[in-house]
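quick one before i forget lol
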Amino acid sequence: MLFLSDALGVSVVSDQWDGANSLPYYLSEAYDFRKVIFNNDISCIFAETRGELPTVNTIAKQFSVIHSALKLPIVLKIQGLPDERRKALIQSRVPFVTDTQIYLPFLGILLRNELYAEPKAREKLMPSAQMLLFKYLYSNGNKMYTSTMSEKIGVSSMQITRAVRQLKKFNLFDVSKEGVQLVVEGKLNRRALFEAATPYLLDPVRDILYIKRNEQAEQLPLAGISALSENSMLAASSLRTVAFYSKSDKIHGENGLTDSERQVRVEIWKYDPLALSSKKNIADLLSVIVSLKNEKPDERVDQAIDKILSNLWG
């Protein structure tokens, strides 16, 4: 959102959107949705794919269905786009926003940052697939039976099936059956498996807000540098970072930091930060590590991460 605000020179406010339940199931499962408001006046819905990017024709048809239901512009949010896919989206008049490109025809905007090479699109793990992978990485056995995973990580049986299929597609797991039980087994040792999966890992943080230090903030699990500091020799930051996740509730705050002593940095997560955690006051560390990969390089942070991974797997 900061990139949009800086590039367009207008205020951009992002908030959770609970209207996905009103859409057909195949659409609510395919995208993560956010409501975005430009200049406190123009509203639209940002849609971020949870799995592999569909064809442009499919996206155009899906967005048309969503637009007909909501009467709001629908914007594809994606990390990067190959040149051909970008041109096809523009030809189909499908709005999109990447890290360096903006195409918002309902605002009359087409911007492209020529200072950066276009990143190649890479499929990311779905939240359920990432949680299943991390559940395996936290476990001790070589085999993991998926029949109990739905309850353990808090996703549906259908999502578990899709997650297994994606992990197999990325060649991270062998999948077999023992009777009626579906069994997954990592192709590599845990440290090597984590490194092999790194290009596909999904940043669990959807958005960042800043709220006043209060009772609600104190009850949220630590995340980011704060979580890392609690599990390593890394010095704690004066700005406390916590994670928030809810399918129904919202949390309201400011987009910018004004006082690190009186505010708390809140990361809005795409999945439950405590679902895989061994501590109820700290987000699961593998997800925290992934969330920090886009931060500015810091040797102390890298050393802390390496120490944590060594403690997990040696």
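fyi The chain has three domains: 2-112, 127-200, 205-313.
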